[in-house]
Amino acid sequence: MMNDQHSSPPKLDREIPTAVEIQPDLEAKGRCRHQKRFWVVVVVLAAVGTLAGVGTKALLNGEDKEEEPRASAELRNEIEALVADISNPLALLDPLSPQSQAVEWLAASDLTLTSADDPNLLPRYALMVFFFSTNGQFWRLTDPWDQASDLHQCNFSGVQCDDTDQVIGINLGGLGLSGTLPEELGLLKSLTRLGLVNNEIKGSIPESIFTETTNLVNLDLSRNLFSSTISSEIGNLKALKRLFLSVTHLSGTLPESLKQLSGLRIAHFFNADFEGPIFDFILSWPLLRTFAVHSIGDHGGSIPSEVGKFRKLTLFEVDGRSFTGTIPTEIANLPDLQLLKISGGSITGAIPSEIGNLSSLRALDLRSNTLSGTIPPELGHLSNLRECHTVVEVLAVLQNELEGRMPPEMCGLEAFRDCTVQCDCCVIPCGKALDD
């Protein structure tokens, strides 16, 4: 039995490796662990490098962000120093004033300015003060100026420039401008056209428009809410050819300096509250082509016989109770006259038969006067009269004291075809008496 207990152990299916055979496996595993440590170190170092780079970039960006407002502040100070002698100093101290808003926009938003020495700075300043003064954020523009910080001012909507990039025109009619006009417009010394018709601008017309922008050729401020007088400095606008001051709240006596505008071609003063005899002025405007004045004060005066000297006149329109006197026969000496309107006043006397010589006349309106006598048959020579409704208003049968019959000569006019002539309370076919 003992022999059986000490018998040799059973033979295994595989050999047990020796120590020599095991060693290579241990070395391989060691190398693997070293390689893992190496790549861990590489990954860690890469991560640290990335974080360091990000940190450095963030630091640099932080420095840029700190540098940017510092540059803007320096530019703002330079701009303020430059415009201090131009704008009201108190306005520059008020952060809500148009002047301060313009400075802030130039310093912080304008992408075209590089320094306060930029030659575009002053015109851009003038335009942006104008923008903020007239509540530009509410203009009816798809591309408002304050959103055009990367554009040259010549590309602002409504702005025109010459070949040297000088601003020569601003045309912003009917676009919802309100507020007031700033004196800084005078910085635009090359301005030749200023058209701001049909807006809601109030206050006074800046003196600088008359003293600094003396190259103005066209000035249209009609249909606004101005509430001042016309400065006597308007006489400085020697180049002015077209003046439109209709439907405003301007009032007071017209300045004598208006007589200095000898180059004036067009003068419109509809529904104005000016005082003084307007015809004293037109005698100083020998190149006048169109003249229209409505409801001007209480002393419009009478139409001078000298009006017949304005040979280039194409439109003569006078409407208002303050006009008195008679229609001068010399008015028939205007070969190019196309519209003659003398209505709504206290004009007396007869209709001059000489009016029949106005061969270019297309419209004649003599309503609402106290004209007397008969309609002269010579009016039948006005072969260019057009449109029945025009002739209805034209022939002085309304609210006058005319008598007699409508001249048969009138029936041959093209404007009378298929129509009748109306008076206050009757319809008068050709040949019928005016008082039937």
Describe the fold and architecture:
The structure is a single chain. The protein is α/β, with parallel strands linked by helices. 27% of the residues lie in helices and 15% in strands. The chain has nine helices and 21 strands. It has helices spanning 2-5, 19-83, 89-93, 98-108, 121-133, 207-211, 279-282, 388-394, 408-411, and strands spanning 159-161, 167-171, 193-195, 202-203, 218-220, 225-226, 242-244, 251-253, 266-269, 273-275, 290-294, 301-302, 315-319, 323-324, 339-343, 348-349, 363-365, 370-373, 401-402, 421-422, 427-428. The strands form six sheets. A ten-stranded mixed β-sheet has the order 1-2-3-5-7-9-11-13-15-17. It has a three-stranded parallel β-sheet with strand order 16-18-19, with no helix packed on it. The radius of gyration is 43 Å and the shape is elongated. The N and C termini lie far apart (169 Å).
